[in-house]
Amino acid sequence: MEQKYFFAVDLGATSGRTIVGGINEGKIVLEELTRFDNNLIEVNGHFYWDIYALYFEIIKGLKKARQQNLNITSIGIDTWGVDFVCVAEDGSVSQPIAYRDPHTFDAMDDYLENVMSREKVYDVTGIQFLNFNSIFQLYAMKRSGNSALKNAQKILFIPDALSYMLTGNMVCEYTIASTAQLLDPRTKQLDPRLLASLGLTQSKFGRMVNPGDLIGALTPEVQAATGLGAIPVVAVAGHDTGSAVAAVPAANEKFAYLSSGTWSLMGIETKEAIINKVSYDRNFTNEGGIEGTTRFLKNITGMWLLERCRKEWGDKAPKDYPTLIADAMAQPAFQSIINPDDKMFANPVNMEKAIQQYCQQTGQHVPEGYAQITRCIFESLALRYREVFTWLKEFASFDIDVLHIIGGGSRNAYLNQFTSNAVNTKVLAGPQEGTALGNIMVQAKAAGAVADLWDMRKVIANSLDLVEYLPQDAAEWDAAYEKYLKITTPTLS
Known about the structure:
Helix 10 (240-246) packs across helix 17. The protein contains 19 helices and 21 strands. It is α+β, with helices and mostly antiparallel strands. It is globular, with a radius of gyration of 23 Å. The strands form seven sheets. It has a seven-stranded mixed sheet with strand order 17-18-16-15-19-20-21, with helices on both faces. It has helices spanning 51-67, 107-114, 118-125, 134-143, 147-150, 158-167, 174-177, 192-197, 220-226, 240-246, 277-281, 304-313, 321-329, 351-361, 369-395, 413-423, 434-446, 453-462, 474-488; strands spanning 5-11, 15-24, 27-37, 40-43, 46-49, 72-78, 84-87, 154-157, 171-173, 183-184, 189-190, 207-209, 214-217, 232-234, 255-260, 263-270, 285-288, 294-301, 402-406, 426-429, 467-469. Helices cover 39% and strands 22% of the residues. The chain starts with a strand and ends in a 5-residue tail after the last helix.
């Protein structure tokens, strides 16, 4: 029997790729077809994504699949969250304003002060407050008289917009819609009160679909351009974090996950949203998952701290990562501790100086040089993870037996061990390619190749060599956590 492949489009805020995956003897195998940049374009004071360039790259990937005579069963698209396009009456697609655009810098405060209160918005949506959430982007566009919004027949989130360009069908996929801060996770629909506050109605959005639903088949135009037939495009977890969490190789519900990379997302998977005063005060978010689940999580500043420092150090630090880490691990432990989510580290002119200033202001040893700074970052991240993990255990209706670390950070052995030490729980690291795996496995489920979410996770677990980390040095990490709480409590965000 000819091997069947699933075609995944995985788009991040800096780059994208097309990947094919197939299931063979209970295991999944991935092959990257193309990789490309996703560039911000600055025009007349605004920053845009080039939706047509992304569409062109998808076509290139599909052409390559055809050239390799791959038997493509379906196509699925996942992207970053919150951003969207406006579709005019004639079907033309606007270039989407990027979430990094400054037009939202004061939009959130303006909306919450003059339109609807912070408490009310959170009570409806259970979504953490970020100035670039779709609700505040739409508000900024409305108050500026944006012509694309004024003339929009439909508003489509990025994965839905690309699916529309491939199929001609307009949908609103649940997991990507949940990032907008417009969706009520109880009803699983866009909230009419929030839409009305923006002068919008449900009719401005596509029909709501869930991961695994059929969007449509490739248009004759796309078929002619790629040499492929009428291949179905399937809704996956359109939000890349939703796809990544779907790929957590857990054996049962008693797990937490840490999607580790430039940014970290730590959370649990729940059957219902958790929306109360405590989740509001701690700024947790409820985002859509597959099979009706909720991703209850918190965003944490991740390895971006070190990435910024490495750029600043230039030739003053080793270029190769293993040497940098080895030098850091040779430093004394717990000399300097920071709260990685303190506002001082949001976007400082110089990250190293910001870290030093924080330590000086909190009466600690001021780290000098790349080795001490790196050690400080690793230990502080692990201690922040412990704090959020402790909160998750309070929220969870089940015991958490294991922390799964997925994403690029799953390869960071020292930080993984520190995390296990800090949370005093077994850590399983992998997969690195969680987003692509989740995308492909949802397609496989839609095709009947796997039965459900847990069957998906079983196949993924069988396909990986997970690395296990067990807690060590409990007394030292307990003492360090007490120090962390004393230092950071006045500055927690």
